[in-house]
Amino acid sequence: MTAAGDDDVLLRTEGRAGYITLNRPKALNSLTHAMVRVIDEALARWEKDPAVETVVISGAGERGLCAGGDIRAIHEDARTGGTASADFWRDEYRLNAAIAQYPKPYVALMDGIVMGGGVGVSAHGGVRVVTERSRVAMPETGIGFVPDVGGTHLLARAPGELGTHLALTGTPVGAADALLCGLADHFVPSGRLPRLAGELAHDPVDAVLARHTETAPPGVLDGQREWIDHCYAAGTVEEIVARLESREEPAAREAAATLLTKSPTALKVTLTALRRARELGSLERVLEQEYRVSCAALSSPDLVEGIRAQVVDKDRDPTWSPARLADVTEEDVARFFTPVPGRELRPGRLDSPQEVTR
After folding, report:
1. What does UniProt give as GO cellular component (predicted)?
2. Which residues are catalytic, by number?
């Protein structure tokens, strides 16, 4: 067995497997730029190493795999007009693409909280394992942001309008609903994860999964498909809210109330991004769009205000600008999708000169 890595990402190889452990448990293993680079370098190295046949990623501590990116750093960067977040996203999104294209089994142990950037380093993998403790979400609209890390690609491909519901409301889902939405592949009780991970050092992935996979406890989304598919098929966020409010189901009305607490701009941009993602097709094309949208969000007042309210001051009372859905114009939304010379992305390895102005 060999071991290497810095404090925030622990790397080791044992037998036929390479292990990545996100190691910031006090911060729910939130990703930093340096962590993204360490992960990418490990994947590139192990891709060429014939001794490593499987890669396993997990999170340290008991609370979850990863709660996302370093939100406080993004807040400071957006507040001061910096470029560090754009640099971070450039490399993070390239890592997401590299995970999706990885030629060896990439096993993501999606135990506990898996949100935002945590979805990016797990749900694009070839083998995605959830547990009874999994809470998977893309909650960006609540901080004035838009689902990224390939999240709009994943959610656009969910059955019916389930992905639209999850993207706009930011609702966390458990194991069964993550499986239903295509965000995960297998359910394994959390108590079995240590054995599963250990056995991957010696046995092929399929054989290990066969020993540990079970049927997930029932979820909730399958029974809500009728109202979700009807309401979220509407062409605008305003119409979605109106349809939800007109339903008799309490869950639909709760969804409407939730939407009205989110950033109106982020909601409209998210809906547009999802609909466009369906047409773009490939993850790489969607990541290009997401990079454009994310960089535009840096100059949006809602990102700074949303993170302030939810993470910095924690008063949970953001003042959105504009404050009403009706006041967000088509021009406001279009700005997020407008190409900016020098700030375009083409996914590739982090040391690749593939990011070009188009």
Report:
1. cytosol
2. 69, 117, 140, 148
Q: Which of 85, 230, 219 is nearest to 164 (CA)?
A: 230
What is 2-337's CATH number, 3.40.50.300, 3.90.226.10, 1.20.272.10, 3.30.450.20?
3.90.226.10
Q: Which single residue is written with the structure tokens 């982090």?
A: 350
Q: Which helix (H) or strand (E) holds 13?
A: strand 9-14
Name the residue among 294, 292, 273, 345 with its Cα closest to residue 90. Answer: 345
Q: Where are the beta strands (DSSP E) in 82-224?
A: 106-110, 113-115, 127-130, 135-137, 186-187
The pLDDT tens digits of the residues spanning 84-121 come to 999 999 999 999 999 999 999 999 999 999 999 999 99
Q: Are 123 and 108 in contact (CB under 8 A)?
A: yes
Nearest to 149 by CA among 161, 159, 160, 137: 137
